[in-house]
Structure formats: C-alpha cells, structure tokens
C-alpha cells in the first residue's frame, strides 16, 4: 500500500557530512603510496617483546559519555518514511543534544544526568514526529545507564503542534501505553534495526 | 514366428523399461543370428500384426474419441515400440535395402494413418533407420514427405514425441547428402520447408524450440530458399521474439538465455534475412517505454550478432546503418541504465569494425567514413551542451576508438571540437567532462598503438603517417591554460577539473609515435615532458614548500592524482625522475631538521613516501624513448631505484645532533632520519613487489648463478659510491652489469644493490657517529636488512658469509670493545636484522662450541637488571638462533651438543633462580626469564626433543614458593605465543603441530594437579593454574578442545579466586611496587581466562552448560572488581580489591572481556538455561553502559541488547 509521504523530498546529508568523533591527531592518509605504511610507519614501532605500547593504552582512556556519544546512539535510527537515518535527515543534530551536568563537571559516577534531545522534524506538520520521538526515547532507555534521565522534545517552532507532541513524549504512562500497542512497537523496532 | 509373437506379446504386456529392453535385445539377436534373412525379418515385422489391424470398433472409437478403445491404442503403441526398440539395438549395417525400404514405408505410413498410437515409435524407428548404413539420401526426402503428412495432428502429439520428430528433421537437414538431395528435388522454392513451417509453427515447448530454431537457422543458411520462403521462415521465428521462459517448479535444464541465444542465431544465420531482421529489430526497439531492459538488451545483442555475422556488409549492413544509428543514439544520449548503454555502444563499435574489414581484407574507405560522419554530425553539437557532453563524447569515442582507421579519420576534428568547447566552457563540470573525453581519446590512442600489429598491415603504415600537429599543441593550448587558471586555490569542482588535467598530462607524455624504422618514440619533446614534470612536482612537494598555515587542506586527492600521474610519466619519460629527485632533495635541504615541527615531519614523511612510490612501485618500460633523447643513453630498469636510493643516502643523515652520543632515546617520536631510512626500506619493498608483479614468483625464485661473493665486490668500491653512481662514474656502474635487464637477472641486480645499501647503512650505524641513529631508524634498518637477506638463496648467504656479518656489520672491529658491542641496543638490532633473514643452512658456522651463537643463546651477564629493549632484542636473537639450529652434526659442532648445553644452561638457571636460598631479584628474573622462554620457544617451534627434558624443571620451578615461580608460570605462554620472527617467510623452522606438541607436554600434565582440592598444596595448584592459563590462552581452540572439562573448572576457579597465585602471602612483606607487579600479573591471568572463555563460547558453548551459574557470577564479579568505581576494601586479603593495582588499560581489558563473555552467553544457550540470571545481569549491564571507557561501553551495550531479548 503506497501512502503519500509527508515530506517527499527531504534534504539528505551524506554519511561523511555527519558529525563524528575525530581521532586524536591527524587521521592516517590513504594515498596510493600508503599501502606499505603498515610496515614502514607501524603503529607500534617496537615490534619485539612485550613493552607496553602507549597506543593501546590510548584506546582504553577514560572518556566520559558526552553529546557525541548520545548522537552516535540515536543518529543511526531509521526514519519511518525514508530509507535514511535521522542523522542524515538532520532530525537529530549534535548541537541539540544537551547533557546536564556536562560530562566534565560530573561529581560522581552515579550522579543523576539529564539528557535533553531536541528533535527537528523535516517539516513542521510531520505526523510521525511522535513516533520518531518515541523511537529516540526507546533507544536511549535501552542503551544509557540507569542514572541518565531522558527528555525528548521537539525543537521550539519546528513543529506545528510541538506542545502536544512534547506532552505525549514527556508522559511516562503514555509512552508505556504506546509501546503496548503492537503496531507502534513493530514500527519502533523497525526503526531501531539499523542501530548497531 | 511364434517366438517373435511371444516376445511382442511380452513386450506389450510389460511396463518395465529394462524388461522391454531385454526383449528387444533378444529379438535383435535373433535377427542378427539369421543375418537378417527375409523370413526372420518378415516374421519379426509380422509379430505385431494382431495389434495393427484396427477393428471396426476401433475406427469408431478413433472417431468419437471414446475412452473404451484406449487400451488398444496403448497396446498398438507398445507393439510398434517393440519394433522400434529392436531397431535401436540392432546392428546398424545388417538390414538389406529392400527390407529397409519396406520399413521406412511402414513407419512413414503411420504418419498418415495412425496419429494416436504410431507416431512416437515411428519417429524413433525412423531415426534409427536414418542412422543405418543402408540409408540413402532419397529415402530422407521420402521420410520428410511422409512425416509432414501428420499435419494438424502434430501439435496433438506429446512434447516428447515432437522432440523425436524434431531430432529426426534436424538429423536430415544437417546431413549434407540429404540436404543436397532436397535442394535437387525442390530447388529454391523449397516446398518441404513450407510443409515443415506449417507443421511446426505453433511449437511452445522450450526443449523442442531449441531444436526447431536450430533447424530454421540451418534452412536459412544452407538451403538457399527463395525470398518468399525466406520471408515465411522469418515470420515464423520472428514471431517468437522477444522470447522469455516462465519459471517452472521442475527445471528442464534450459534457461531463458539459451532460448534467446538459439533464436538470435536464427536472426543472424544468414544475410538473406537482413532486410527483414534489421527493420524488425529496430522497430521493436522503438516501442519506447513498453520495452523492458532485458528485452532491450536482447534486441541490442541480436542486432550486434547480425552485424557481426552477415557477410558482405556493404550490401547487407550499410543500407540499415542509418536506421540503426537513429534509433540507438537515444539509448546512450538519454539512457540511464548502464547495461543498455554498454550494449548499445557494443553495437556501434561492431558496425565500425565491420565496415573497416578484417585483418586480411580491408573494405572501401568510404563506408567507414560515411558512418563516422553520420555519428559525428549528430554528436558534435551535443559537445557544447553540458547536459549531453558526456553521452555525446561516449558515442563518438566508441566509434572512433573502434579501429585505427576510424581513429585516423576523425581524431583531429574531434580534438578540435573539444578544444573549441574548452575555450568557452559552460561550467566547471562541462570543462571536466570535455577533459575526460580528451583523456579517453589519448588513452584509446595508446591502446590502438599497442594493438597495431594485430590488424591489417596498412593500419600500421597509416599510423606512422599520422598528422600530429593537433596533438603536439595539446599541452600548451589546452592543459596548461586550464591548469594555470584553476590551480590557484581551487574549490572542490575545480579540483575535479585539475584531477582530469593531471590524468591528461600523464596520458599525454605516454603518447607514442611510430618512427619510420618501426620503433616507438615519445610524442612530446623533452622540454614539454620536463615542463609537465615540474608542474606536477610542485603539487607533490607542496607540503614542504608551504608553511603549516598556508597548507591546511585535508583533502589530498589532487596530490594523490599527481603522484599517480608522475608515476606513469616517469615510466616513459625516465629523465623526469631525476628532475624530481633534484627538486625533492633541494626542498628537503631547505628546511632545518634539527628540531623540526610536527608539521614538517609529516610533510617530509608524505613527500618521501610519494617520492618512493613514484620511482619504485612500477618497473619503467624499456620501449619508449623520446625522439630528441641522446641515442647512447638507454634507460635501465633499475635507473629509478638507483636514483631514489642514492638520493636518500645523500640526504642521510638530515640531522646528526640532538641526541646524546651513546644512549639511544627510546621514547622519542619519529625523526627526520628515521623517515629517510623508512623510505629506503619502502623502496626495497616496492621494487620487490613490482618485480613480482611483472615477472611472477617463479622467476624471482631462480637461483643465483655461480659462486658469487658480492661482499668482496663491494669492498672494491670507494666509500662515496652513492655519489659516484649518481654522477654516472664508470666504476660502480660496472658492478651492475647492464646486460641483465630482465626477469631474474634484473631482480638479482636489485638485490645486490639493496645489499650494498644495507651494508652502507650498517657500517654507518655501527662505526659512524651515533647521533643520526634513533631507535625507529635502527628498527627500520634491521627490518630492511631482514627483507634483503631473506630474499637471497642459501648458497649466496653462505658465500657472502652473512652469518658472520651479523656480528661484524660488514666492517672491521678495530677500536670497538667486545663489551660495548654485545650489550648495546644498536648492535643488537643490527645483528637481529641479518639473522632474521638467514636460512638455517647459512647459520651453521656460528654454532661452534663457545662461539658467537652460544654466547648469545645463553649469556646472562651483560645487560641491565630489568626488562628493557635490550632484553627484548636478546630474547629475539636467542629465539632465532635456537630455532635455526638444525641439530645435525656439522663441522663447527661435531657432537651436535650445543643445543643440549644451551637448554641445560637455562634449566639450571631456572632451578637456581627460584630456589629460596639463591633466588634472584624478581625484576632481574623477569628480564632473563623472557630470554629463557624465547629460547625455549625457538626450540619448541621445531619440536626439539631436548625441550622435553626441561619440562619437569619448569613445572617444579613454577610451583616454587618464591615469587619468581609465579613469574615463570605466567610466562610459559611465551613458548607457544605467535612470534613474528619465527615464520616460514623468515626461513624459521616451524613444525605444523608444534603448538599441540608443546601443549601436551607443558600444560596438559598440569590440568589435574592444578585442580583445587583440600588435600593438595594450594600454592602449587594455583601456580599450575597460572601456567596452564598462560599456555592455553596462546593456543588455538582445537589444541585444547579435548580437555575442556578439566580446563573449564580451572577457568572458573581463576575467575572466582581472582589472583591467588601468591594467595597465601609468602610472608616476605613485599613492597608496594612488587605488590603492584604481582597484581598486574593476576589481572593478566584473569584476562587470559576470559579470553579462553570467549574462544570456548564461540566454538563449543555446550561445554559450559553445567557451569553457567559459576561463569556468570565469576564474570560479573570480575567486572565489578575491575570497575574504577568499585569501593576499595581494606585489608590485603581482599582479592577483588587487589585487582585495582594494575594499569587502567589492563583493568579495562578485563572489563571488556568480561562483558564480551557475558554478552555471548544468551546467544549461545536456550532461553530456559539463562532466564534465571536475566534480571540481575541486565541490571548490571545497564550500569556497565555508563562505563568510563568508550570501548567497554560499546561491548556493554551489545551485551545488554542480547540479554534484553530474554523475556522474563
């Protein structure tokens, strides 16, 4: 059954345009000449013995959860209409993710953190805004530790009925009830399939 | 008679095919034994009489089709089957011609009278008769006549029966004698063809169609039918076009593609259908959107087949070209599907090739000319329209590039059109597309030159006479102006244009011209080549010429393109590389390398890496030389390699200060000098790979000829040989005899030169100032030496006495004390490099009692007291020397006792070092123990039996109460750990099952004693556990899979006790530092146990079924204990708290592995087994999702998702 799409032509970002965690230092160049760089410029330049290598330690550095982490969790959710992710459609945007208190000021590992996500639907009358919000909420509740409180909202002015949508998404009972609905649950599961 | 009747009856009554065959054989034998006497054959034929005479009732039934008579029909069919079955097994030359005629008459008559029962058997029988010796062509004509009489009832026959008849027809029309008889009788009117067409035109069975198409193709090709008949045949087969096949549940072995092919061969069978075929196909194509891609492809392929196969193209193809072109051009111009575009271009190319003629016979010039004119007329205007530039160019290129004549006809005007359009481009994309076309024309030109010998001899002459002015001016008129305008701060679209220019320049330099004497030369003059080179060199050296502020672009695509272009350029224009080298050297020398910035170092690294790639990743071609190049200077294949390496050697060292004179700074980052050495290493790798790609592995493995001692030859060279070679002096050049420029000879010359470079660097490192030689540079030099040495064969390694050079470093030792040499990291690395590459046979001389080898294998006197780089190197050298010992008596070691002594030495050392009375300080023990274990690893890899004698000593030592015992137990895994030095590539002796061997002797005996039990020595058991875990975690799963039961209990214990190797507190009040080290080792033990769990879970999870509770509890405990937020419990007894001492990385590794094990469990076991653990585990994993380490968080999330699927 073909349904008319709410927004038939959304703007799509390519994967390389999405915000990502840039590695420390400059990324390795991949020119035609770099095929033997693994041998002549190895990551661990001391190939003999077991001296602890500093590079490996770097992978295990302590890195508290930050906005980019949250972005990575939810940007890969599929859009219910288009074969693209919420990140590609800019429904989820890095600057619209707020952690409070911020990761650097976290007093202890178990202190309460609030994650506020502001979604921007591709058009302001998007009928699926609630479903998208629900999916984002589900994804975060499934992946964040228990001391994180999730608050999903529509960005101010981005949706014609943002008050209503926000109310729905903020109401725990309604969210729980929505997920009791098989059709909705299936839809959300489908959207979360693309999350690694 | 009675006998035949009986058989016939049996045959009719039988339903079993084998039985029927037996009966037929009996009848055939009977006829054969009578030599086909008329009586016997008559009896045989008459035996079916009773079924043949139709009763009146039969007739009625036949008419009204009543079911009541079907029994008779079946019986009659079977009776006829008896006759045809007999014929099938009957000797082919037996029947006499009168019998033969009668049989043909009889079976032929069936097609007129008995359409219900007689056809299958008759068709079979006729096919048998046709294959018999007595068969005459005129009988074939009669058979055809008879069979056609079946008329309308043909389509009522079963598909199998029809297939029989088709096969019969095919056999007849294929038979040259029958077909000539047919032609004689019917002439061009081919009356029988019309009958056949009427008979078969409604065929739908795919198997039958395959044969029917074949028959029609033969009729067209061989029978010369009149135009009316041709048209009739065409009508019949074209009605099937386009053909498809419904997918069926029972595949019949024929695909839609087979049917298409068969039908296509009807279309292309003969040019006499050309006047019908082309308009028909073109009209089908012009149906627009109604045609699917598959059908379009079918049409295009059919047109192509017709063009290729029709003879006399002038009469049969030329009249249709315009129509074909007018229809096809839109497929490319407006087409979107790649497959159809490709197929269309194939058709256009096929036309151009057909109009040119063959390699032996050229067609008239005007045919091709008018075709090319037609195409160019339609496409030229499109080149000015950015929307269609690409498509129009594609069409033109396809036609022009099809053959030399077409190219020569139109290339000048094509280039001219492009040039005009480039002057007023509509957009950067338009420029890019136009350049793309120009480049592909240049590429096509190179291809045409390459294949010039395969065509007509006239083609080559025409190529030699080609006018070239339009090509000569390309650089200054087209490429250079675009480059100059776009090169200043290009934006992304313009970068694409510049990339095209870069590619174009490379193609331009590669353009050959044919000289009057038949040799090839370069089109561009040396000055143009040089100009192009310098243009691209500027791009490549940009990183170093600009400052970090001016060059912040992340995108290196243009530079990479320039690198590829330069590589192609210097293959043809060999002087270009020398020019590049001069420029690179000058740029590098301009900077100060004493304390360079990170930017400078990266720029240097990139530049050198590219410089190396350009010169060495492909072997220069030896054909193309510029017309104005001095004749006496023939480029050598090694030329670029020599230029590169001598330039790098000249640059080295870039800085000689900044380091203390003796100590080598190990923690420092890469230095400029290290980059130079890395590039020398890379040049050897690249050139070797290029040789392998060009000549293949076999050629490279050709043994070296004669008794050569390269080192002796090298001694005659002056110290400054690199600069002499560069200047082109005679001396060093003679070293590399110019006669061997190909294959194995070239490769050997390359190795010789590489060894010379290694020698040069070794001497510089060993005897020169130490300033330039940082650790990275030395490691690279060592690996480069290993690479060069391991490519030499054993004979050469021996004749050059490389084993001793590993300790002499290609020079005299005067002035260097023995002590400083052996304890030095520098010399250690140099030694290691050569030893690593030597073959076991070349090392023999070293194993003299008390000689160099023994000293290295069991010396514990001369280096620092803690694990260090020196001890790593010593361990590596020990492993190699022990491994490459072949164990046989030799001149240097007549009793083959060296290895025994070495292993005894280490056995005694271990015993002493852990004995409470004379125990060694643990830190020192740690360092020496690594050497001991590596020596054992070398011996274990070749399964030396002396190792077995040492095993009880090791077990005993591991159980010693001294802390050294635990260090030893922990390190046993080194014996089976993968060691990059002990690989077949490095000529190490590695037995295939040595890990099994080592495991069964080292770890397996400890499995039982390691089990915890109240009556056992708990410390010994714990130590054994540590030892087992250390070994097992380094082995593949298959090695220990038989002992899973015992092993899992150990693993669970390891998790739950976490530590405990020294658990009873040996009371010697270890210091904080020592405590930390011990804890680190314990966390290593836990990590090892977790690694083994991961392996078991992925290979044989069911083994863990009985231990799930313990595993989950243990793993959860490990995670919590390793958590950085876990509360530190007071008191030394808390094993969990003790894990906090090791580094954050080790803890994080434990946490990651613990979560990995936990996450794998729900995927491997049924829900009912894990349900009970679900809730607490999910709670714990939810917390783990907030782990401070990102990598751990990722694993936690996936584990949490796996557990979330368990529904409580």
From TrEMBL, chain A:
- Positions of the region Disordered? 1-63
Q: Where does this protein have compositionally biased stretches of type Polar residues?
A: 8-20
Per the record, the GO terms for biological process are: protein maturation
Q: Where is the composition biased (Acidic residues)?
A: 54-63
Checking SUPFAM superfamilies in the record gives: Fe-S cluster assembly (FSCA) domain-like (SSF117916)
Q: Which InterPro entries does the annotation name? A: FSCA_dom_sf, MIP18
What PANTHER family does this protein's entry cite?
A: CYTOSOLIC IRON-SULFUR ASSEMBLY COMPONENT 2B (PTHR12377:SF0), CYTOSOLIC IRON-SULFUR ASSEMBLY COMPONENT 2B-RELATED (PTHR12377)
Q: Which family does it belong to?
A: Belongs to the MIP18 family.
Identify this protein by name.
MIP18 family-like domain-containing protein
Q: Which organism is it from?
A: Parathielavia hyrcaniae
Automatic annotation (TrEMBL), chain B:
Positions of region (Disordered): 1059-1081
Q: Where is the composition biased (Gly residues)?
A: 1059-1068
**Keyword entries, A-Z:** DNA damage, DNA repair, Nucleus, Repeat
Which Pfam families does the protein's record reference? MMS19_C (PF12460), MMS19_N (PF14500)
| Compartments where located | Nucleus
Query: Its function?
Result: Key component of the cytosolic iron-sulfur protein assembly (CIA) complex, a multiprotein complex that mediates the incorporation of iron-sulfur cluster into apoproteins specifically involved in DNA metabolism and genomic integrity. In the CIA complex, MMS19 acts as an adapter between early-acting CIA components and a subset of cellular target iron-sulfur proteins.
* Protein name (database record): MMS19 nucleotide excision repair protein
């Amino acid at each position: 059954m073909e349904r008319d799409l709410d927004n038939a032509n959304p703007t799509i970002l390519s994967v390389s345009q999405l915000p990502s965690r840039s590695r420390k230092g400059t990324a390795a160049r991949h020119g035609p000449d770099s095929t033997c760089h693994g041998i002549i410029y190895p990551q661990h330049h001391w190939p003999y013995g077991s001296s602890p290598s500093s590079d490996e330690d770097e992978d295990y550095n302590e890195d508290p959860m930050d906005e980019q982490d949250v972005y990575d969790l939810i940007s890969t959710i599929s859009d219910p209409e288009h074969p693209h992710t919420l990140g590609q459609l800019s429904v989820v945007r890095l600057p619209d993710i707020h952690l409070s208190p911020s990761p650097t000021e976290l007093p202890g590992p178990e202190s309460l953190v609030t994650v506020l996500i502001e979604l921007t639907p591709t058009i302001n009358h998007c009928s699926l805004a609630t479903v998208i919000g629900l999916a984002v909420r589900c994804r975060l509740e499934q992946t964040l530790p228990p001391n994180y409180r999730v608050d999903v909202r529509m960005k101010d002015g981005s949706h014609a009925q943002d008050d209503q949508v926000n109310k729905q998404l903020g109401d725990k009972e309604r969210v729980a009830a929505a997920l009791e609905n098989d059709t909705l649950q299936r839809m959300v599961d489908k959207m979360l399939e693309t999350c690694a | 008679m009675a006998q035949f009747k009986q058989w016939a009856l049996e045959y009719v009554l039988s339903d079993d095919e084998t039985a029927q065959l037996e009966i037929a054989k009996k009848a055939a034998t009977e006829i054969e034994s009578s030599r086909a006497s008329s009586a016997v054959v008559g009896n045989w034929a008459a035996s079916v009489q009773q079924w043949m005479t139709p009763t009146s009732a039969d007739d009625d039934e036949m008419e009204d089709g009543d079911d009541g008579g079907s029994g008779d029909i079946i019986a009659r069919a079977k009776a006829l089957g008896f006759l045809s079955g007999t014929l099938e097994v009957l000797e082919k030359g037996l029947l006499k011609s009168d019998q033969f005629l009668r049989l043909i008459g009889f079976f032929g008559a069936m097609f007129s009278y008995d359409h219900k029962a007689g056809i299958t058997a008759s068709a079979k029988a006729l096919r048998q008769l046709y294959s018999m010796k007595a068969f005459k062509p005129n009988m074939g004509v009669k058979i055809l006549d008879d069979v056609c009489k079946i008329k309308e009832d043909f389509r009522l026959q079963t598909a199998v029966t029809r297939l029989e008849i088709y096969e019969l027809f095919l056999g007849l029309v294929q038979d040259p004698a029958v077909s000539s008889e047919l032609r004689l009788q019917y002439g061009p009117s081919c009356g029988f063809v019309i009958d056949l067409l009427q008979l078969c035109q409604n065929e739908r069975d795919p198997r039958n169609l395959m044969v029917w198409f074949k028959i029609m193709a033969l009729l067209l090709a061989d029978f010369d039918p009149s135009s009316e008949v041709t048209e009739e045949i065409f009508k019949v087969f074209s009605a099937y076009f386009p053909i498809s096949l419904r997918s069926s549940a029972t595949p019949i072995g024929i695909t839609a593609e087979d049917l298409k092919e068969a039908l296509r061969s009807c279309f292309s069978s003969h040019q006499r259908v050309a006047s019908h075929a082309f308009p028909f196909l073109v009209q089908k194509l012009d149906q627009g959107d109604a045609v699917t891609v598959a059908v379009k492809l079918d049409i295009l392929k059919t047109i192509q087949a017709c063009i290729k196969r029709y003879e006399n193209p002038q009469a049969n193809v030329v009249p249709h070209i315009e129509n074909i072109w007018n229809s096809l051009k839109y497929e490319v111009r407006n087409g979107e599907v790649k497959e159809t575009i490709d197929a269309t271009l194939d058709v256009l190319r096929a036309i151009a090739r057909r109009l040119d003629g063959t390699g032996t016979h050229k067609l008239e010039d005007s045919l091709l000319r008018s075709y090319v004119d037609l195409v160019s007329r339609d496409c030229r205007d499109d080149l000015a329209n950015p929307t269609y530039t690409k498509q129009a160019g594609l069409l033109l290129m396809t036609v022009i590039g099809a053959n030399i004549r077409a190219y020569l006809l139109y290339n000048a005007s094509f280039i001219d059109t492009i040039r005009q359009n480039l002057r007023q481009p509509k957009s950067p994309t338009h420029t890019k597309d136009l350049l793309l076309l120009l480049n592909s024309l240049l590429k096509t030109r190179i291809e045409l030159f390459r294949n010039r010998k395969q065509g007509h001899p006239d083609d080559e002459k025409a190529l030699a006479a080609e006018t070239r002015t339009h090509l000569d001016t390309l650089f200054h008129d087209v490429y250079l102006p675009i480059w100059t305008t776009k090169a200043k701060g290009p934006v992304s679209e313009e970068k694409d244009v510049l990339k095209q220019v870069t590619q174009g320049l490379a193609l331009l330099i590669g353009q050959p011209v044919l000289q009057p004497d038949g040799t090839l030369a370069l089109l561009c003059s040396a000055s143009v080549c040089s100009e192009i080179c310098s243009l691209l060199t500027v791009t490549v050296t940009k990183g170093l010429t600009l400052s970090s502020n001016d060059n912040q672009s992340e995108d290196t695509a243009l530079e990479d393109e320039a690198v590829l272009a330069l590589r192609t350029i210097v293959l043809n224009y060999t002087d270009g590389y020398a020019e590049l080298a001069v420029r690179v050297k000058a740029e590098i020398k301009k900077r100060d390398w004493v304390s360079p910035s990170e930017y400078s170092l990266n720029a240097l690294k990139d530049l050198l890496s590219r410089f190396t790639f350009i010169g060495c990743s492909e072997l220069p071609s030896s054909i193309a030389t510029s017309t104005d190049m001095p004749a006496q200077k023939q480029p050598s294949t090694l030329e670029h390699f020599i230029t590169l390496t001598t330039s790098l050697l000249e640059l080295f060292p870039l800085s000689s200060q900044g380091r203390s004179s003796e100590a080598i700074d190990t923690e420092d980052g890469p230095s400029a000098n290290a980059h130079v050495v890395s590039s020398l290493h890379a040049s050897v790798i690249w050139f070797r790979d290029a040789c392998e790609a060009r000549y293949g592995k076999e050629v490279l493995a050709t043994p070296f000829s004669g008794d050569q001692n390269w080192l002796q030859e090298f001694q005659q060279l002056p110290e400054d040989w690199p600069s002499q070679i560069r200047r082109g002096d005679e001396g060093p050049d003679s070293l590399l005899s110019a006669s061997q420029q190909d294959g194995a000879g070239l490769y050997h010359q390359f190795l010789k030169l590489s060894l010379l470079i290694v020698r040069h660097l070794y001497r510089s490192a060993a005897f020169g100032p130490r300033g330039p030689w940082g650790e990275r540079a030395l490691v690279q030099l060592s690996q480069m030496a290993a690479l060069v040495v391991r490519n030499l064969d054993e004979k050469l390694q021996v004749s050059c006495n490389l084993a001793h050079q590993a300790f002499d470093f290609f020079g005299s030792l005067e002035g260097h004390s023995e002590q400083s040499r052996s304890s030095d990291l520098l010399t250690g690395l140099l030694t290691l490099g050569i030893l690593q590459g030597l073959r076991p046979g070349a090392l023999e001389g070293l194993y003299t009692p008390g000689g160099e080898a023994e000293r290295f294998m069991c010396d514990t006197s001369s280096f620092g007291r803690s694990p260090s780089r020196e001890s790593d190197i010593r361990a590596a050298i020990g492993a190699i020397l022990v491994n490459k010992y072949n164990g046989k008596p030799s001149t240097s070691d007549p009793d083959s006792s060296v290895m025994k002594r070495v292993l005894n030495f280490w056995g005694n050392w271990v015993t002493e070092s852990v004995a409470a009375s004379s125990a060694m300080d643990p830190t020192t023990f740690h360092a020496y123990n690594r050497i001991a274990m590596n020596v054992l690893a070398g011996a274990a890899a070749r399964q030396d039996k002396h190792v077995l004698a040492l095993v009880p000593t090791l077990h005993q030592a591991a159980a010693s109460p001294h802390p050294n015992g635990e260090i030893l137990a922990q390190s046993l895994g080194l014996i089976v750990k993968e060691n990059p030095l002990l690989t077949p590539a490095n000529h190490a002796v590695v037995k295939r099952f040595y890990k099994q061997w080592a495991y069964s002797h080292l770890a397996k005996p400890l499995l039982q004693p390691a089990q915890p039990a109240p009556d056992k020595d708990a410390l010994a058991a714990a130590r054994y556990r540590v030892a087992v875990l250390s070994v097992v975690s380094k082995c593949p799963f298959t090695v220990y899979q038989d002992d899973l039961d015992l092993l899992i209990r150990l693993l669970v214990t390891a998790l739950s006790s976490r530590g405990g190797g020294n658990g009873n507190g040996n009371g010697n009040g270890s210091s904080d530092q020592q405590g930390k080290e011990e804890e680190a080792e314990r966390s290593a033990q836990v990590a090892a146990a977790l690694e083994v769990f991961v392996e078991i879970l992925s290979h044989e999870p069911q083994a863990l079924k009985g231990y799930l509770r313990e595993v989950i509890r243990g793993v959860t405990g490990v995670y919590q204990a390793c958590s950085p937020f876990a509360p530190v419990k007071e008191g030394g007894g808390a094993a969990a708290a003790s894990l906090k001492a090791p580094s954050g990385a080790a803890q994080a590794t434990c946490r990651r592995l613990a979560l990995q094990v936990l996450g794998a469990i729900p995927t491997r076991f049924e829900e009912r087994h894990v349900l009970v653990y679900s809730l607490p585990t999910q709670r714990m994993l939810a917390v783990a999702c907030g782990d401070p380490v990102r990598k751990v968080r990722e694993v936690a999330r996936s584990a949490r998702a796996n557990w979330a699927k368990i529904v409580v």
